[in-house]
Fold each of these.
Amino acid sequence: CGFHLKGMGGSSRPLPFNSVYVEEGSSKLGPILHETLARNEKLVLLSAPKQAEAVLSVLSENQAREVSTINSGGKVNEYLLSYTASVRTVLGGVPVEPDMVISVRRYLNYSDSDVLGKEQEEALLWNDIRRDAAEQLIRRLAYLPRPAQPGKASQSLKPANAQPKP
Amino acid sequence: DDNAPQTLTPPPAAQGQTHVTADHMDGQMQDKLKASGDVVVIRDNQTLEADWLDYYQQQNRVKAGNHFRLTREKDVVTGTTLDYWMDEHTGSAQQPSFQMGTPDTNNKPGGAKRSLAQSGIAFRGDGSEVQFTGPDQYRLINSRVNSCVVGDDSWYLKSSTLDLNYTTNIGIARNARLEFQGVPILYTPWIDFPLDGSRKSGLLTPTFRSGTTGFDIALPYYWNIAPNFDATLTPHINLKHGTMLAGEFRYLEPGYEGSIYTEQLRNDKLTNTNRYAWYATHKQTVLPGLTFGYEYNYVSDVDYFSDFGDRTLQATNVNLKREAWVKYSTGWQGGNVETMLRAQRYQTLEDPVIAADQPYARLPQITLVANQKLPAGLSFNLQGDMTRFAHPTLQTGDRFVAYPSVTWSLLERNWGFIRPKFGVNYTKYDLNPLGSNTTPGSTITRTLPIFSTDSGLSFERETRFHGSDYVETLEPRLFYVYIPAKDQSKIPNFDSSENDFNFAQLFSENRFSGWDRINAANQLTAAVTSRLISSESGIERLRVMLGQRYYFKNEDTSLYGDQITLQNNSKGLLGSLGGDLTKAWRLDSTYEYNQDLSKTQRYNLQVRYNPAPGKTVSLRYRYGRYEQIGDTTQYGPLRQIDLGVQWPIARQWYAVGRESYSLIDNKPLEHLLGVEYNDGCWTARFVVKRDSTLATTISSASTSTGVFFQLELRGLGGLGSSPTSDLKLAIPGYSNISDIQSN
Amino acid sequence: EKADRDKPIEISADRGNLDQLKGVTVWQGNVIIIQGTLKLNADRATVSQDKQGNQTMQATGRQVTFRQKMDGKNDWIEGQANQLDYNTVTHVAVLTGNARVKRGNDLVIGNVITYNTETEMYEVSSGASSNGGRVTAIIQPKPRDNSPAAKKPDGNAP
């Protein structure tokens, strides 16, 4: 039915860079972006922006917990957890316009009798939301417009055979 | 003849050069110049046009008359006579009318040095005299000003002196009167307001709220003490209860930030007790990675919010948290650790308080989370928790938890992964004697091995859908968990509760949160996710997920800790379909099927159409077989439909509405209807909101109505009670129409 | 400078002729008149002298120019026009026809400029010119008192 393993056949889209530095700042999304990128074995993760062909920086991140349903007894039984983050990618020294913005939502079923338990369940959902946001952002990296001419930094770093096949 | 002087060319343009043209001129070189007849003076970014002009070169001072027009970047001041020192930007002019910055809608970045247009708030008006008191600073005498286009006199702020300072972007009016359509609606001896629309205004905006909680007039007063420290003092006049003073102090420094909010009512007329509320938060970074802070919420009595709050406040303030914490986190190559010490307790506002509803207090709690990468694809994780639980009535004691685990990235590719994980959860309880019985406290330990394996593959193919290219993914995932059964009925339940059955929970080892209950497990969870990803941007347009859990041994642990046997060996079929289909259409839906009862447990469907700001329709239907429908002991079927609409009904007119209806009780829960009018420089809102709660075991049925009327003057602030926060909550996608360009 | 008045006037030109009776001399072609620091160039100049010895001068040409040093300051006054009438008694020079007067870095442009070399008073008007011409003054920012006096404009060695 035409399915192939990701990255194995068809016009799979390689990432437009071979080395990346994630500028985490004080965001919670940063470490998860770093961890998810680390799973791609063809990618070199650096700890400083100098040599990196691409620099990802988390510009803004905000999360809101809003009442989404008040039941007929006047008690909250559902919160909406909404998360938005914006990430800037600098490819070969040139920032890619516009910045990537991602928003993810989850509903948290709630009851006032389980305050402590729900506190942890909410944390579980926030982690799930951030992991989902990181995966979507990383997937969108493959679709970023290629820089006009690859930055000088990339020349020195490109190992001979790492040219991804078109 | 070479030594004849060449033709005299004008000197090159230079900073500070003054260029004067007129019909006639006379004067003394380098001293004084008198020009008359359509005089135009251009100096750097200042242009002055007048009928006649005297220019005193030594002082760089100009006097102009009969009629003048001074333009500097976007600011234009016209008037009869002018006396102006060009260098010091000081002087005065008579009968001025002024236009401070013209709002050009497409404010191009990198425009003039300081152009008001970038901030969009352009004030204009006239007065008897204007004094130029420095660069970007004006003082207007007996002036009237508004932020409307020329010729639109819908409102004016009239004042005896008005200081406009465009370096600090603050306008201060003294002895000021606000006139709307010619009718004076507010007098205030002193107000300050933002010139770039950024900062809250100090305007004394009386807000009033009426409804079943009594009539309440509030006069908030904003005081910007320092750039990073401000306060809002709000006396509330409540006819039922008496006058209450509310104060909010906010501070923001590089190393720390926080706020303190309090409401104080001395001697409530109804209860003749003191009523008060405190909400304070503080967060401070001492060293990189070392932070501490507190969150303090406390009210004087259980009925505080039913007397002073609206339905949402009552619903969201059942348990008020009081907590102080110190957190240290650090990282190194391949690992990190975060540890926290905190004391936490809750104030439960229930009358009477049901014991089970009152959460335990953690006095104190120490948590630790550590991760460390190991060679050969292994990674180590340790979670630790040491807590002393206190409770007025229930069993109290200390608990120590240590849960080390190792995860092995057997396969780690972007097309697939296999991650076996093995850990041991060791928990030790030192329980105090319960109540009056004399038996000494007891000690319980529980050690449970936890084995799990998470694995998944990722397939892709290109497809076309509705004429555009997509990548369609197919992501099967298998998650196996093995945890031996263990009776935990003797273990108290300090902080465990059953998690909602959703996709995040489907792939976690324990279906209980907290540490007191660990479910027995010999189960395999299978799920498949399919996404439709747009080929040009990589944005996920649609996501379908289907998941189910299979039990190899049909035994499980209940919330009470005892072992239960399951009727059949699969539980909970879960599905979800949703995504931002297009820029305007958004779909969210989830479905849960309960195998034990072979019935639908819960589903909800939400569709939102939001093509442009100010245009949104959101419809949501929720079905629940067994949900909390009243207070915490009242469960039953839930069928609720919510409709939220904001739509333009005529040029500059918008209707807003919300209908929340409980189909099972056949009763409306929330009505909200309102209309908004935006006239460019002012916006009016009139909203009526009626909430009704049905009878529950501990509270009788009640309805509360709220009437909001607000007049928002662009750039000056709002007057009357602002319904915008209610509207944002009630109508998903609601946008403040005063931000939308009135087309 | 005021001192120029007592200086002798040297006039050089391609041709010159004297009408003794009326006391009028007419010079033509590359006329250069020098009196102390005053220096004037023109194509044609007629100098007439009344009985008391007061001289009036009218210089015309495609472009009449003159330069004179200011009193006491190290500044020069320069001017140009199609026609210049100068009266040594009133010390008033009238420049007509796209006239320009430059003093230090300040420049005045107009159709008719009357300038009193002694009081430095000037008057600029569009005069009877048909297109209702405008007059212009370009005034340089006066140097901050702490900076050295304005640099002498180069290219005009005394």
Amino acid sequence: MLSIKNLHVSVEDTEILKGVNLEVKPGEIHAIMGPNGSGKSTFANVLAGREEYEVTDGEVTYLGQDLLDMAPEERAREGVFLAFQYPVEIPGVSTSHFMKTALNAIREHRGEEQLDAMQFLKLAREKMQLIEMDEKFLHRSVNDGFSGGEKKRNEIFQMAVLEPKLAILDETDSGLDIDALRIVANGVNKLRSSDNAFIVVTHYQRLLNYIVPDYVHVLVDGRIVESGDKNLALRLEEQGYDWVKDNDAVTA
Amino acid sequence: MSTENDTVKTPQKSDYDDKFGSAEQQETIEKLTQSDYKWGFTTDIETEVAPKGLNEDTIRFISAKKKEPEFLLEWRLKAFRYWQKMQEPHWPNVNYPPIDYQDAYYYAAPKPKKELKSMDEVDPQLRETFEKLGIPLDEQKRLAGVAVDAVMDSVSVATTFKKELAKHGIIFCSFSDAVQNHPDLIEKYLGSVVPYTDNFFAALNSAVFSDGSFCYIPKGVRCPMELSTYFRINAANTGQFERTLIVAEEGAYVSYLEGCTAPMRDENQLHAAVVEIVAHKDAEVKYSTVQNWYPGDKNGVGGIYNFVTKRGICLEENAKISWTQVETGSAITWKYPSVILKGDNSIGEFYSVALTNNYQQADTGTKMIHLGKNTRSTIISKGISAGKSQNSYRGLVRVSKNADNARNFSQCDSLLIGDKCGAHTFPYLEISNTTAKVEHEATTSKIGEDQIFYLNQRGIDTEDAIGMIVNGYCKEVFMELPMEFAVEARNLLAISLEGSVG
């Protein structure tokens, strides 16, 4: 599904990612862990197509297409979803209007019929229940005045509505209390299927108690230095990141 | 962000005196005594077009053509003589080449437009715009000049509306008809809110106004429909000097919509309209405008100069006047819909969205003049600048010394799209009563890259994303618009912003 080869990325002439390799197949969950400043968020954002990130080398193939050649909205329409670390507020735009527009843009791209307001509302209500959010959030402005936890849940709600093929969760667990964490993880687990894949970017292991990854990769200083199964996350939890920092870069 | 992007000036009182409204304007608050002036007219009325240029003969010609009563001709002539002594104002933050007022026709019978047989004959680009705006097909036909079928015949619809209104004693007709059929009302109220001495363009309008609308709601009557519907059907050529007068008697209510979201092209470059509203005790008038005159092309060539004077007076207690405007058209917009809060407990409101793109210039805002006790006013202004445009908010809140417990809340927000445009705020406060409570909030923001990226990441393309963000930003104002226009206004903003992102 996703094949990343030797990905180099710079932000304002500073190289952040220094040759990342990753293969993701349908049905898999990959966790990307690493200390602060290791390039985790850059990795997530560059896959979504954020402009400030300049790819200086390497290639990314997504479903047989050159992902780096696609505009952010094209990537989204092809099924790439980024759950933002810092979800953005859009005052005056209701969550339902926003999501209906987004879903219909994606459906149009897929050659599917547009949903009308009633059809959309029915779908949105179901998805709201999935992440135990009150329906009233549908009528509120996007993330405007939401608490940190509500914003993160809103990201998962959006993911549930858009049903992406490849979902990238950028530190979705940060700022969540344990109940919210469980709800978010529960939502992700319900969306899991053999057709879609997740990349879960996190600093802490605790999310991975709820979303069990197939692979764990450790990103240090712009390179994946260690890859393993869920036990790697546990080891990081116990021993911190210092022991991997000394390892040479390895290929996942 | 360039330094030009973010100017907030706090002017001094002396600034106000010569910059925002002349000394004459301030006299408006008092009743103006008009000297008697007699003048017979002997103009030949055989021709259909007045000769080019502006002199007393032109005015007599217009008045005779319209078979006006003598008081009106006298009023026009007084206005003209006053205008001749005035200077064109240059205090607005706009630039344009000098206007030659002698190089124009001031009266010509409306030219009938060529009637088209079906929508197929209409310019595809115009059809596409109609679609985007969501204008109903029958109305599209009317706007484009296509013959409408018998059932939806605009004349019969208009007649139905007229019957319904007449049942309630409501007068709603063209200004010319009102002059013929209700001269007493015209004589009583014309110029009572915007006297011809008010400003240069109001004086010019008073001298040469072509036509417009008159609306009278009798005591205790709540107008059963938005006068918009009717107006849109009758939005024929009212010419470049439009005059509107709305009178709401005690306890009356009316919601009035001027304009249209459809693109309006006009050969006349200068438009100087005057709107007057009189609200008696307990009356409420809601006046909504959607202005989409031709803004000129991408390089700033052509476009309408829209120099408008709009003012209402809450004459007695508990009256309310509310202005809502969505301004997206015209090369230059220069207007300050204002409210004189004379009656105790009266309320004035101003909700505005002004969008400029390419080389458009807008200098718009309001004046809230608090004279009565416990008077309240609210100002919500949303400016959006894109391209190389300049967008200024200019507003005055004046609390006179007898206006005990007056309250005002002003919020003036500016949104910038790109870094070649300008947003400016000129708030003027004149408070002469210590019990007044006046709050002013102002923000200037740039449309966020992160907001656009967020919407992009959900599959929404950049143009739609900007449309969505801008519409959200304007929501407070759109909520004040009648329902059907709120939808069209949202679409209009998106269309007006097309091509604003490179």
Amino acid sequence: MVKTASVTGKPIQIKIFPQRLLQPETAERLLNEIDHVNGVIRMLIGGKNLPRKVTCGPGTGTDVNHPNMEIIHVGDCAFELHVMVGEVIVELEDESTKEELRNACERTLPFSFEFKQGFFIKKKATLTDYGKYGFKSKTDESINLEDERILGLMDPHAKPENSLCVINPEEEK
Amino acid sequence: MAYKPQYYPGSTSVAKNRRKFMSDDVEKMRDISDEDLTALLGHRAPGSDYPSTHPPLSEIGEPACPVREVVEPTPGAAAGDRMRYVQFADSMYNGPAVPYWRSYHAAINFRGVDPGTLSGRQVNEMRERDMEEYAKRQSETEITDWGLAGMRGCTVHGHSLRLQEDGVMFDMLDRRRLEGGVIVSDKDQVGVPIDRKVNLGKPMSEAEAAKRTTIYRVDNVAFRSDKEVIEHVQRVWELRTKYGFVPKA
């Protein structure tokens, strides 16, 4: 697999927007089904924040212990959910597997969902990314990243180990 | 003939529910004990005395004033209670109350209220014991469905969000949740754990919530389907606009 976001061919992006906010079990099933679809380049999970501590009011600092903050397993990767999953954006290598993705969602989600094609995750570096990662060298002004697929997947200030996971890296070799 | 207030126009179920809320002609759905409610509110320890902010009015010796003679103080004011608040957030997915109707219910049926009405939440400040009486009334009746509403002093996020898979409105601080078919709460309204699990009863089914709601929705009862309400709203709008142009009229 090419390690740039804009792979050769015409990648498409799909936003899956379920009618309800997903419980961790449903989110895990959905993400695994999507992972089995051919040609998935990257996925972005969005939803409602689950804080570890109360951040305002008289109870500031109290532990929340939200039961939906679970560790889920997707492919060979385990990570803790920091959000109640409300949407998943998927980038596919081309249009050919779009229906396969739709079927995966229909199999997993017990309620209706929106399935929109559009441009949701950026594909090339912007000024903020250059500010964070810099140039490769004085002579090479491309962005100093080994794998450009992480562009647009996380906040520039976030730490990759907390918000990013690479599924099945062995298969790519 | 005795005067009968005409609270709200319209013939749809939403208009009827709005009239019910305003007139306090609401059905009691559940029992919440005083101690449980005090714990949920989180202003004082259950069973403790009401802290006061001034001596009882009877001891102060009020000045001669015709208004004070006419207006009887509420129990909380008479005892010198502190001002305390309760805040509710209601889901726009057919939550029984919408913020304005909580405020109308408070302002019409209770005294000494200071309701603050926002888009997705409603806060009400009153003397502590008066506030508890008001909060109990709203918590125990059809005004509140604990699956589609929450008592939230802070972090009120939830009103306009999609519901969770189990049909409950999202709560970032997990103050209440669905357990065994009933809503239970083990935190007070600001997210601090309390020493008990308060049973808030069964949440309403989708059909029941749609029947009892006071929110107009295109997928339930559309605002435009109630001609009398439209007429009323347009008349109020027209008079307000005209008044704005002719302030002395």
